[in-house]
Fold each of these.
Amino acid sequence: MKKNSTTHSAQNVDEIVSNALTELMSTKTLDDLDQWRIRYLGRKGIVVQLKRSISDLPSAERPEFGQTINSASKELEAKLLNKQEEILASDSKKTAESIDVTLPGVPVNNGSLHPITQTIRDICDAFTTMGFEVIEGPEVELDYYNFQMLNIPKHHPARDGFNTLWIDQEDSNGEKPMLLRTHTSPMQIRTMENQEPPVRLIVPGKVYRYEATDSSHEWHFSQIEGLAVDKGITFANLKGTLYEFARKLFGEDVKVRFRCDYFPFVEPGAEMSIDWNSRTNQTGDANWIEILGAGMVHPKVLKAVGYDTDKYTGFAFGIGVERIAMLKHGIDDIRLFYNNDIRFLGQF
Ligand code: PHE
């Protein structure tokens, strides 16, 4: 034997492996790791040297020693990969930790609900806490529901008050049966046709009128219809409910006023105003602003849907949403709501 035989003992290989693993444990960086790899597993590394030295052994000892080196080499390679993953994982953790959380953040532009949507939600909340259910209905409506069933037959003068946008489609009589609803009241009929009393509902939604626009008129706007039908409902219930609504929306001290008004589908009919000065705590004369139309549902309307008018009475109301939003936010031009100017909408 030419070389010292200790190099060629399995015991010696074990020692080399154990030294290698101790060194590996103390490597911290990928560079260190690469140095280690070159030293042990590189083309001129210790493992290759050991392999080369096999030929120095007597042939009987070569296979066993060869296997010892192979398994040592596999072990070192496996440990190398493990260590590599370990270093990579701790590096990425360090990168995450190195983010300075005390730096100012990048601002995110928050969206917000449209002021009309917010007002609709506030009004709906006021009524749902009083036991009303929220439903919705079609914006393209039939003359039948928008007018006829609401005690506004063809050629009734009340139709002049609703400047109607008709759908350009004629029936076999040459008449236009469809329109863009001019109010949310048709949903009173659609519901009562399908449901026996008690009925307590509110209907938020868009309505349309063929009107020139100015600071207080839009050709489309939003209403919230209300309807309550049951045994023994009186005008006092109407007043109590609407007063409670006004207090919920405008504050406990708000003053309300009811005056006679006319709508063909209610009898008697009324309008409710609030005293804007009572709300803003101003002294002096009241400043009455009308916010809704209301009344006891006309017996003709109840009969038309098949309700027993000896048993049931009801009240209905229609609230103008834009008017309420304008009052609440001190807005003096209704057209601002629909111009989609972000400088306006961004304030809410
Ligand atoms: N629908 C009526 C309007 O648009 C408002 C209203 C509803 C009045 C219900 C009385 C009862 O003017």
Amino acid sequence: MPTIVIIGAQWGDEGKGKIVDYLTEKCDYVVRFQGGCNAGHTVVVDNEKYVLHLIPSGILHKDKKCIIGNGVVLDPLGLLKEIEILQNKGIEINDNLFIAKNCHIIMPYHIAIEEQSEKRKKIGTTKKGIGPCYTDKIARNGVRAVDLLYPETLRYKIKANLEILNFLLKNLYNAEELNEEKIFNDYIFYAEKMRKYIVDADILINKAIDDQRNVLFEGAQGTLLDIDHGTYPYVTSSNTIAGGACTGIGVSPKKIDKIIGIVKAYTTRVGEGPFPTEINDSLGEEIRKKGGEYGATTGRPRRCGWLDIVGLRHAVRINGFTGIAITKIDVLDGMDKLKVCIGYKYGSEILEDFPKEIEILQNCVPIYEELPGWKESTVGIKDYEKLPKNAKRYLQFIEDTLKVKIQIISTGQKRNEIIIKETPF
Ligand code: GDP
Ligand code: IMO
Ligand code: MG
């Protein structure tokens, strides 16, 4: 009956969607517990590509229950579009999707404010209104899913928020004000479409766990984008780490059995912020092309770099991974040698722990260990023993330095291009 939390160990886009889709086969429920449609989780099944933004990546399997938890910030328009795209591809949604009454709703003023504030702050956000929506949640101004079902409450909240935000838009940002009536009418329309999905998700999931169901918790973004433990301020606005799974759906830490860290075989980052192992020459471009490293949500090119054990050690520590999955090993095929960062040099200091100081992260120099590459293709390999010797050596190095077992190795985009070295169930 395990409950398994899936967490991105780097700066997102590690391949969480693919692993969640694969593991869903043996599960009954899949829960998203934070983030919103800033996420882009790609799953390839039978040569058809699906990009999930809000709906858990388990939805592609028949009869699996998918829950959007209270920790998520939900854009109704984004959700309805996503439902439509999936339904057009023949995916069953109606009885399989649940939305927590207490998840917060992204409003047009969140997107409008972010559009403006990004001009000054330059975090490189996805401009999906994520930060401003979480801001309203914490400030206790937020609109929750359940408010959509109470028109008077919805009207009151939109009015109260617009009083402040329209003032900012007009007077600080010199931007267009938003119309209360239009927002209210649009959201009443969305509410009618969403009504059937809105439930007490905490009760639903706790009952499922008590009934010994297998549950996956699907993290979005990655550990280094965590609002508390990431490279602040170049982070997202939620707790992306394992602890977020408990608060983001309402499940006790006592009920979490396993935590799997998803680790891309190299590192990528999209948006601004420090990235010590970034490769700034043509090799970075080569990896980007080979790995298809373009944002699944915004289409922006992802910055590419070597694997960073310092960042990963931090991720292992604060998430308590019980196992890891290495993805995209095939992207490294054909390289002469591979570098792995095992420490940072900052002035005369050698750092083994991921620094909190953005100034250090921006100016440290990675200390690399070089490992030999492999010439053979690993694409689609399903048996660990069939991997090239040096690919196994690379994986063993990661396992030894992180002291966490590699349970899964992904060898391609497709669902069945995977090695299960040790079952997480
Ligand atoms: P997520 O946000 O963590 O779910 O990851 P994304 O979907 O944003 O980015 C991962 C990309 O890598 C997607 O295009 C996946 O289809 C692809 N992918 C996942 N695993 C593998 C793999 O093992 N090999 C290759 N070549 N591509 C993979
Ligand atoms: P998945 O779930 C990679 C990045 C943005 C930006 C920062 C803040 O697909 O791994 P936000 O819009 O969240 O306020 O932007 O976080 N970011 C991601 N990077 N993968 C993601 O999601 C991301 N979601 C947000 O690029 O740097
Ligand atoms: Mg992604």
